[in-house]
Amino acid sequence: MSGPWRTFPEVTHHITERSIRTYAELSGDFNPLHVDPEYAAASRFGSVVAHGPLGLQTVFESVTTWLGLDALPTGASLEASYLAPVRPGDAVRSRVAEMLDHAGTLVLSVTCTNQRDETVIEALVSVPRHVAPKSSA
Amino acid sequence: MSGPWRTFPEVTHHITERSIRTYAELSGDFNPLHVDPEYAAASRFGSVVAHGPLGLQTVFESVTTWLGLDALPTGASLEASYLAPVRPGDAVRSRVAEMLDHAGTLVLSVTCTNQRDETVIEALVSVPRHVAPKSSA
């Protein structure tokens, strides 16, 4: 872990009722857990929560920023564990925490925390080694 | 694989330039690969492509629909492999193709294809067994 790998860009997204509403319209997923505060308050989550992909965006962004890529390349894979819900008002902060260069694949461990420093998502992203710019490894 | 497991709901989302633009505004990711047709035409993808989370929405939706849940529960994990890009005009069709009930965890294999029947994403979604409604297993 040295050289360019020490540069771990952080990405923070602020999740709001408005962004959740916009995502509901985009995806067609108007489940009341995402858009109806009263229904959501009575659910096991206790409040409105963001759609899963919303929090994940920070993972895509921190990884592509770090690698200097426009987007995750074909052949990439992502494994995400949802550890805690993301709610309106949350600031989701994502950063590449570790990396492995293994058998032609870069494996990046990404941690997403909220403003209370609770981990909300942990992700492993694998990309073919050859697509990463030389400057990133 | 019998009983309720035979009911595999399919979910189809139509990806458009408009939905990609909306997602760019939502996420702040205005990478030209997503929003600039001329730049994207010269890239290795050859055209504008959708942000990664956009295609994934169909996975979340087919799994939660099938399980009868409002959303993926805390403790769920998702592993997605990006096999081919999603482009404006694509219809991404997602369905739960297989399932395993293993050691207290339901593991669902989800396949996402486009209108040419090319697989664009393959995903494994794991959810704690106890959160699935009785009717689904």
**Rounded average pLDDT of chain A:** 88
The major sheet of chain A is characterized as: 5 strands, antiparallel
Number of strands of chain A: 5
Number of helices of chain A: 4
- Give the N-terminus to C-terminus distance of chain A in angstroms: 10 Å
Oligomer: homodimer
Question: Greatest chain-chain interface?
Answer: A-B, 42 and 42 residues
Give a description of the structure:
Two copies of one chain form a homodimer. Chain A has 137 residues and is an alpha+beta fold. Helix content of chain A is 26%, strand content 31%. Chain A contains four helices and five strands; from the N terminus they run βααααββββ. In chain A, strands 1-3-4-5-2 form a five-stranded antiparallel sheet, with helices on one face. In chain A, a hairpin with a 5-residue loop joins strand 4 and strand 5. The longest helix of chain A is centred in the middle third of the chain and has 16 residues. Chain A is elongated. The first copy, chain A, starts with 9 loop residues before the first strand and ends in a 9-residue tail after the last strand. At the A-B interface, helix 1, helix 2, helix 4 and strand 2 of A face helix 1, helix 2, helix 4 and strand 2 of B.
Question: What key attributes describe this structure?
Answer:
31% strand; 5 strands; 137 residues; homodimer; alpha+beta
Write the layout of secondary structure elements.
The structure is a homodimer of 137-residue chains.
Chain A: E1 10-14, H1 17-27, H2 32-35, H3 37-41, H4 52-67, E2 77-82, E3 91-102, E4 105-113, E5 119-128
Antiparallel strand pairs in A: 1-3, 2-5, 3-4, 4-5
